[in-house]
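Thread: Newbie trying to understand structure tokens

Hi all, I'm a second-year student working on a class project, and my supervisor (Dr. K.) asked me to get a predicted structure for one chain before our next meeting. I've only ever worked with sequences, so writing a 3D structure as a token string is new to me. If someone could post the tokens and maybe explain what I'm looking at, I'd be very grateful. Here's the chain:
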Amino acid sequence: MLASNYVTVHNFFMLTQYRPQGRNASEISRDVEAALREGRARPGMALPPVRALAAALGLSPVTVASAYRELREKGIARGNGRAGTRITGAPPIGPRPPLAVPPGVRNLVAGSPDPAFLPGLPAVTPPPRMYGDPPVSPRLGRLAAERLAADGIDPAHLAVVGGALDGVERVLGAWLRPGDRVAVEDPGYPPVLDLLSAMDLAALPMALDERGVTPAALRGALARGCQAVLFTPR
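---
Reply by user tm_fold:
Sure, no problem. This is what the structure looks like when written as tokens:
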């Protein structure tokens, strides 16, 4: 006989084997990770609904939702729409091991610009940021707007990010939901695949030729219902 507890919810029976604990979002997230390591929780197990867990812990549903979002971002949980959130058992996304580059192949992942071509930075302390200051430095905004406008891109809304991958993550997080499909170049940038996995997004590969993504591959990705496309134009 299976030793588990059953609770009745609107005349349905729900198997309850593990309930996360914590006083805030971080503690709930860490408790799920610990339960997975210790065997108290298993991959495939459904986490309690957000409102039910919030009521049981005496917390706001927003707090529990934040914890579940953190678990999805780490690749530990996956959202399944009305089916709720389930534990995936995947470890947190970490740095990839060094790639073994075959003979005759050039490794472009670790490419960096020649420092001799980078402009020098002034050895001064920047002034402190104050409330009401523009979110983007006016001078940086003008330079960026000129570059974008030259490429035919509307520079009306600018954001400064900490690298291309940070920018991609912010855009995907703002527009997509877990389970959405993102078309990517194949072969492409490996950290992008790590990012999509951590955000619970599905990657759709697009074939390349010497000019980039082929029109047929793009049409195929759009026909398969992708919600976003990632390009590396140059």
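A couple of things are worth pointing out once you decode it. Helices lie at 25-38, 50-57, 61-73, 138-150, 164-175, 190-198, 215-223. The two ends are 62 Å apart (CA to CA). Feel free to ask follow-ups in this thread.
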